[in-house]
Design brief:
single chain; alpha/beta
């Protein structure tokens, strides 16, 4: 099993000659953003620009600012670090990157997402329209920012969820916010205990960090917002997904019609079950994972989860862009390496 940057030579197990290998797109949540991310693609890629601007127009119908202005750092545009800004902007960038992958010949056979990334996955799968997805993201990000900003955050921890739960017995107020991979979990809670927990892990040599700009979602702090989160999604008319859609709320495949306000409350409140979804996809025959994002957050835990589920050396996991490298060359390199691997690595 490899990530882009290597040259694998093993064909995916169980695939007949000439058969296109099965690939899943995974949409990350908050944390992959960086100033200027993908702005060079706006000028260099017509496909990316068209899809980004379509999403940006949908966001602008619900927000009083322009995602393109934010991406380009225009004077007077809101700061990317604000929750109510970064989440809709990432939706625009990530869905446009997904369309860029498709235009270059890598089509998803299944989609899933982490936290807010589930909205992008639902949109790409056709379960939500672009306008529904944009309106949902703008409204919920605004509510989460207004009610939870300054009350805590999310930390990424290089330990598996079972070990994190054991350690949290000594840290009241903190909860596991995500089962991301065999050696990665997220933790939610108030700022002071969260920072103490991170400091404790670092002192032991365990990689851990508080994700900048996050709020304590995927935990009990969301519960008082239940009725409002459900009500703000009343406009949604979810429909059956055109692509297999997997839920990191339930850990399994869903039809798409479940994506009502109640579902999106659970998406904000419950832990993210990313690793269980990867295991299910591997059992379903998926042997390629693409993360369409401005910086890879999930490639390592997805690779580790796939390996733990029995995926062999013919499985490929790739990001798209990297922090500080958001141009066409970076994308084309990732695309070429991934496709070479998926065709057998010759």
């Amino acid at each position: 099993m490899t990530r882009t940057g290597t040259s694998p030579t093993t064909r995916a197990p169980g695939r007949r000659p000439g058969e296109r290998p099965r690939t899943a797109f995974v949409f990350s949540g908050q944390g992959s953003e960086w100033p200027g991310m993908a702005s060079r693609l706006l000028d260099a890629s017509l496909v990316f620009r068209e899809h980004f601007l379509d999403c940006a127009d949908a966001v602008a119908r619900h927000a009083a600012w322009s995602p393109e202005d934010v991406l380009r750092g225009m004077p007077g545009s809101p700061h990317l670090g604000r929750v109510e800004v970064v989440q809709p902007v990432l939706f625009c960038v990530n869905t446009a990157l997904a369309e860029l992958w498709t235009a270059h010949g890598t089509r998803p056979d299944a989609v899933f997402g982490q936290s807010q990334g589930e909205v992008a996955a639902a949109c790409l799968a056709g379960a939500l329209s672009r306008d529904e997805a944009a309106g949902l993201l703008v409204a919920r990000a605004r509510l989460l920012a207004a009610e939870l900003a300054g009350r805590g955050g999310i930390a990424a921890v290089a330990l598996g969820a079972p070990e994190v739960r054991r350690r949290l017995r000594r840290h009241p107020g903190l909860t596991v916010a995500g089962d991301i991979g065999p050696r990665q979990a997220t933790v939610a809670g108030p700022s002071a205990p969260l920072e103490r927990f991170v400091a404790e892990l670092r002192a032991e040599g365990v990689r851990a960090r508080v994700v900048a700009g996050t709020v304590p979602s995927h935990g009990p702090a969301v519960e008082p917002l239940r009725d409002r989160l459900i009500a703000q999604a009343a406009h949604l008319r979810p429909r059956p997904a055109r692509l297999p859609l997997y839920s990191t709320v339930t850990g399994g495949r869903i039809e798409g019609t479940e994506l009502t306000g109640r579902y999106w409350y659970e998406n904000a409140r419950r832990p993210v079950l990313l690793a269980p979804v990867v295991r299910r996809l591997v059992r379903a025959g998926v042997r390629g994972f693409v993360e369409p994002s401005p910086h890879p957050l999930l490639t390592v835990p997805v690779e580790e989860a796939a390996r733990a589920a029995g995926a062999g050396p013919g499985t490929a996991v790739t990001g798209t862009l990297r922090r500080g490298h958001g141009d066409v060359t970076t994308f084309l390199r990732a695309s070429a390496e991934f496709r070479a691997h998926r065709s057998g690595g010759s």
